[in-house]
Write a structure and sequence with these properties.
Blueprint (H helix, E strand, L loop, with lengths): L1 H16 L2 E11 L17 E9 L2 E7 L8 E2 L3 E8 L3 E8 L6 E9 L3 E7 L2 E9 L4 H196 L8 H17 L12 H9 L5 H13 L1
Antiparallel strand pairs: 1-4, 1-5, 1-9, 2-3, 2-6, 6-7, 8-9
């Protein structure tokens, strides 16, 4: 019993620990028969069916039979084998032509189960693509492959970055070494060049000093000669300028004398003109004062005339009132004066106003407009203006 139990435990442990795989057939392509033969009785394409068997205890056991793909040379549909298989299992894939009378074997292929994705050719099968994987679907396998590829790419990227970092560090170390070596060599070259430059500068200073002394001597000699020539030239030029200035001063004095004489003549003429202007100004002021007095007198006459006109208007109004009063008295006393129309009365008033305005002096306007004069005017209104004027003058003389 213990022995049997141990064997059973080993079997179950092997079953539990063993990994299962899934089989997928993605494409089948069957070639045509030779010599003008056909797969089908009706001269059509084969009716393809896939059968898978697995070896178990030295026997082949059928684990999968697919649907029949009628009249197909190529099957592009994915065929999923639902029965899982274990690693290192032996299987046979049969591709058969399904027929009424008998089934023709198109081809078969023996495989050992392991993770794979292949395309095989056998018998009349030109192409058979299959996938053996641990995943339950091709989509899951694709995602896992993408994830794996992504992890590989990330690892490659990290490795490349690390490689770049290492190369950069190596390059930096190499450059640091080269920089130090170059710096040491540069310091050495600088020291040598500095010594050579100092020696060259000392030699150049010596040569420059000798050359400057020689040039200074030549310059001093040339300067003394040039100085003497300039002194002689300046003395001659100064003498000529002094002579020219004396001549210019004499001419300028002559011009000043002429200008002074002309100025004196113009001053006398200006003085004479100023006297004439003063005299004219005095005459103009006198005339202006006379004209101003005349204007003031005319203004006074105008004011007096305006006053006289106002008095005449007042007298005319009194005269009209007296005429109305006389008419009333005549009517009351029973007199029968000649009646005057409004038009005749207006003409009489205008004639009286005209006569009064023609008087030349204010004294002549002091006429005593008594009742007799007004009655005579009213009675004799039909007479001519000359007779009326004569009567008025007679009353004015009384």
């Amino acid at each position: 019993m213990r022995f049997v139990f141990c064997i059973m435990m080993l079997f179950f442990s092997h079953t539990i620990l063993a990994e299962s795989y899934q089989i997928f057939i993605t494409k089948i392509k069957v070639s045509a028969k030779n010599n003008g033969k056909y797969w089908d009785t009706f001269k059509g394409a084969p009716d393809i069916q896939v059968v898978i068997s697995k070896r178990h205890n030295d026997e082949w056991k059928k684990i999968f039979v697919s649907q029949v793909f009628t009249n197909h040379h190529i099957v592009d549909e994915h065929i999923v084998v639902p029965t899982p298989v274990e690693e290192n299992d032996e299987i046979i894939i049969y591709v058969v032509d399904r027929d009424f009378r008998r089934n023709d074997n198109i081809g078969s292929q023996m495989l050992t189960v392991k993770e794979s994705e292949k395309t095989v050719t056998f018998s009349m099968v030109e192409e058979l693509q299959y996938v053996i994987t641990k995943y339950s679907s091709l989509e899951e396998k694709r995602k896992a492959s993408e994830n794996k590829r992504w992890e590989e790419l990330q690892q490659q990227k990290k490795a490349a970055q690390q490689k770049k970092i290492d190369e950069r560090e190596k390059w930096r170390t190499q450059m640091e070494k080269e920089r130090k070596a170059f710096s040491e060599e540069l310091q050495q070259q600088k020291k040598i060049m500095l010594e050579e430059a100092q020696a060259e500068i000392t030699a150049q200073k010596t040569r420059a000093k000798e050359l400057m002394e020689k040039q200074q001597k030549s310059f001093n000699a040339a300067w003394e000669k040039k100085r003497a020539d300039l002194r002689r030239e300046m003395e001659a030029k100064f003498a000529a300028e002094q002579k020219q200035k004396k001549e210019q001063l004499a001419a300028l004095a002559e011009q000043i004398k002429k200008i002074s004489e002309e100025f004196n003549n113009r001053s006398q003429l200006y003085k004479k003109k100023m006297d004439e202007l003063k005299q004219k100004n005095t005459t103009w002021k006198t005339q202006n004062e006379q004209l101003q007095k005349k204007i003031e007198k005319q203004q006074q006459d105008l004011q007096q005339l305006q006053k006289t006109i106002d008095e005449h208007k007042k007298m005319l109004q009194e005269l009209q009132d007296k005429i109305e009063k006389v008419q009333k008295q005549a009517m009351f006393q029973g007199a029968t004066p000649k009646k005057m129309s409004p038009r005749q009365m207006a003409r009489a008033m205008r004639a009286m106003e005209f006569f009064i305005r023609r008087m030349k002096t204010p004294a002549q306007t002091k006429v005593k407009y008594d009742t007799r004069f007004i009655v005579d005017v009213v009675k004799n209104f039909t007479h001519s203006y000359k007779k009326w004027e004569k009567t008025a003058k007679l009353y004015a003389q009384k």
